[in-house]
Amino acid sequence: MKSDEMSAVPSHVAIIMDGNGRWAQAQGQVRGYGHKQGAANVKEVVRCAAEIGIQRLTLYAFSTENWRRSALEVNFLMRLFSTYIDEYTRELVAENIQAHVVGDVSALSRTLREKIERMEELTAAGTGLVLNLAINYGGRAELVRAMRRYAAECLNGGQIEELTEADVARYLYPSAAADVDLLIRTGGERRISNFLLWQVSYAEMYFSEVLWPEFGRDELAKAVSYFAHCERRFGAVKAGD
Predict the structure, then answer these.
(1) 183 strand-pairing partners
(2) Among 18, 20, 41, 136, which one carries the catalytic annotation?
């Protein structure tokens, strides 16, 4: 990337990692093969994001709606998450990355929850990139969770407090609560798919035709370069317009 583009690196990048199944089918393989290649690609993209200077990276790994997929595919994904987290934790620590899982982990197996807890504990001291893996996550579910937490605090306090936008952010998953600067979706689709609904309010959006297993360093650099050339107005108008 050019020096002027480096100066406009997005702080918080969110990625909808789409296309694993289609990539596998194009290779004459089963969907699980695509998911394995997609998981391997996560490491490359995370490392590249840290090198570029992105501070926070949130990856959509499994949505609240993905439970509707076949039991065979869901079980495969859960085993893949378990293996990935188990094997990748040591690398995250070595690379100074602080890792979190955002989403309703109560629906996950006890073994997977324990591995997530261990990963978060071991990487808590990381001062580099903050990596969020969204597992059993939905944007609407997060907002409902936030409102329930707000209501519980009001009931405990005995009165209804005025709710501000800053307060709403305080009730979201902390590691992913910051506004998203750049939302990337791979695989050619152009939907948000219930991802970080509050956080992407003013995000720049980059839709790539490249399927996730092939979305590597060069593709991430293209997305960041696109962001660097965006004029972010946040509702204002350009001088002279």
Answers:
(1) 14, 205
(2) 18
Closest CA to 94 of 144, 156, 50: 50
66 is catalytic: yes
Report d(CA 198, CA 142) in Å as an integer: 9
Domain assignment of residue 239, yes or no:
no
234 falls within a domain:
no
Say if 95 falls within a structural domain. yes
Between 71-94 and 110-123, two packed helices, what is the crossing angle to 10 degrees?
20
Pairing outcome for strands 98-102 and 204-207: unpaired
- Asked if 241 is an active-site residue, the reply is no
Q: Does residue 41 sit within a domain?
A: yes
Task: Give the pLDDT confidence of 176-222 residue by residue, as tens digits.
Answer: 999 999 999 999 999 999 999 999 999 999 999 999 999 999 999 99
User: Of the residues 4, 20, 41, 66, which is catalytic?
Assistant: 66
